[in-house]
Design goal:
globular; Uridine Diphospho-n-acetylenolpyruvylglucosamine Reductase, domain 2; 18 strands; eight-stranded antiparallel β-sheet; binds flavin-adenine dinucleotide
Length: about 500
């Protein structure tokens, strides 16, 4: 232990030896070993740890909360510090169902809970959260520290817009309950706050009535402008459409892998052109909830919507699935990738928010950056609406084109198996990605989501106008710069040179 002289420094806390898990994540790119691990049994354990660190000579020891460890670039790691494994907090889920017209139902849930657990529990009461991520084996605290987006975000905003209250242990070990009206500065800081201001121990999540079934539709396009026009049409119909996403079909592999979770028979046999002149396609995925109400014919709702769309002739596929299976669709892909040995590989993923005004240029830049014949993975593209995001929260959106209501998220979810991509290959891939992201940022005003910045200067640039507020909040809620070292945003100025 470099700075920790003795575990006795932490009184009754049981600090554990570091494990392989605590120094790795889904990205499999960064492996930072902490000095010790805390598996908290209560919020008091976390408070005790942070208050001991902030009041003693140990204040140079850093601490990272680790959710499910599904970050890409070591964001939940703490080199020579302490990793707090949030999944060991006792699971608490309490549903408060409200029947009144203006009343909101909600769930109080411990932050180490996985969203799949939240879904299972809330469905027992016929309820469910409104806003999701595509994959559900992520923790509540982990996604709320970023934003939490999926095909429902256009309608309800990201997951951070669907929280009523948080319980947080600040960097000084103080236990605080916060909301939009109580200790609001901490509430806004922590949501999208990249684990910099406090450790979330509990969240109060808005619930709505869950549908019985979902109509899940895929429609294909051979033209980008028509694809985005139809996506924008769909997000302008929140009364009938419940979910909108989309992806690029680059090659046979991307068509097949994206079809794993979709239970319909996709009969599309595209012509991908030649190596010199590749042809790519796009697929819109949307969904309509079916509450099995007598007066609503969901097939008719889907027909009405599809009549207004301009997809390729006959390339329209619709299936009906249970709400649970729809939300848990990525687990089918996980099973398939695990079977092929392609889950525990490097994931040099890049996610960017792109202003609507720059989406065509971004698409063209992207085609220079990736080559369709050897790209392994998925490229997601779908629209979000700015006014569903709260500017007081810490999440960063593009400033360019901020008068456009629509912006896009593009996820370049690439896999690189160590069998075919060695250390140097991965290094080159990451370099290439970095320069692509920088160009997209400089030329188009795109912003990274879930990204890693190579220096504090780059972080300043990333936050742009929001930087001063972010830094001020840091010095208020974590003045010893203990929390979230894996993000690489701050170092304690006192120890900067050592
Ligand atoms: C297969 C897959 C699919 C994904 N799909 C989506 C998607 O559709 N939409 C989306 O938005 N994201 C998606 N993500 C990204 C995901 O939201 C982030 O990686 C998120 O950080 C994962 O949560 P986690 O619980 O694994 O957090 P971790 O990776 O463990 O932590 C992430 C960050 O949050 C901090 N943190 C964790 N818990 C707490 C806490 N309780 N209090 C304070 N800080 C905390 C950590 O210190 C770290 O900085 C996906 C990731 C994967 C691997």
């Amino acid at each position: 232990y470099k700075f920790i002289q003795s575990p006795m420094d932490f009184g009754p806390l049981n600090l554990l030896q570091t494990t392989y898990e605590s120094s790795r994540d889904f990205g499999r790119i960064v492996f930072n070993t902490p000095a010790a691990v805390l598996r908290p049994q209560s919020k008091t354990d976390i408070s005790l740890l942070l208050s001991s660190l902030s009041t003693s000579s140990l204040s140079r020891v850093t601490v990272s909360a680790r959710g499910a460890g599904h970050s890409i670039h070591g964001q939940a790691q703490a080199v020579d510090g302490i990793v707090v494994e949030m999944e060991s907090l006792p699971l608490e889920m309490e549903i408060h169902r409200r029947e009144g017209e203006n009343e909101i139902s909600f769930m109080d849930v411990s932050s180490g809970a996985l969203w799949i657990e939240v879904l299972k529990e809330s469905l027992k009461f016929g309820m469910a959260p409104r806003s999701w991520t595509d994959y559900l084996h992520l923790t509540v605290g982990g996604t709320l520290s970023n934003a939490g987006i999926s095909g429902q975000t256009f309608k309800f905003g990201p997951q951070i817009s669907n929280v009523l209250q948080l319980e947080v242990v600040t960097g000084q070990g103080e236990f605080v309950t916060c909301s939009r009206t109580e200790n609001s500065e901490l509430f806004y800081s922590v949501l999208g706050g990249l684990g910099q201001f406090g450790i979330i121990t509990k969240a109060r999540i808005i619930l709505q009535k869950a549908p019985e079934k979902v109509k899940w539709i895929r429609a294909f396009y051979d033209d980008f402008d028509t694809f985005t026009k139809d996506q924008e049409l769909l997000v302008s119909m929140p009364d009938s459409v419940d979910y909108v996403e989309g992806f690029k079909v680059l090659n046979e592999q991307s068509l097949h892998s994206s079809s794993v979770g979709f239970p319909g028979n996709i009969g599309f046999v595209p012509d991908f052109g030649t190596k010199e002149k590749p042809k790519v396609y796009f697929c819109i995925e949307f969904a309509v909830h079916d509450y099995q109400l007598e007066h609503i014919n969901v097939d008719e709702v889907v027909r009405d919507i599809s009549r207004q769309m301009s997809y390729m002739q006959v390339q329209f596929y619709s299936v009906e699935v249970s709400y649970f299976d729809f939300l848990d669709r990525v687990s089918m892909e996980e099973i398939s990738l695990r079977r092929k040995g392609l889950w525990d590989v490097h994931h040099p993923w890049l996610n960017m928010f792109v202003p609507k005004s720059g989406i065509v240029e971004f698409k063209e830049l992207l085609m220079e950056y990736i080559s369709p014949d050897d790209f392994m993975g998925l490229i997601l593209i779908y629209p979000l609406l700015r006014d569903k995001w709260d500017g007081n929260m810490s999440a960063v959106l593009p400033e360019v084109g901020s008068t456009d209501r629509v912006m896009y998220v593009v996820g370049v979810l690439q896999s690189a198996s160590p069998d075919t991509c060695n250390h140097l290959c991965l290094h080159n891939l990451l370099q290439h990605q970095r320069s692509f992201a920088q160009t997209a940022c400089d030329r188009i005003g795109a912003k990274q989501y879930l990204g890693h910045q190579p220096s504090m200067l780059h972080w300043r640039e990333h936050f742009s106008r929001k930087w001063d507020r972010f830094a001020r909040r840091k010095s208020r809620f974590d003045p010893n710069y203990i929390l979230g070292p894996g993000q690489g945003i701050f170092t304690n100025p006192q120890f900067a040179s050592s």
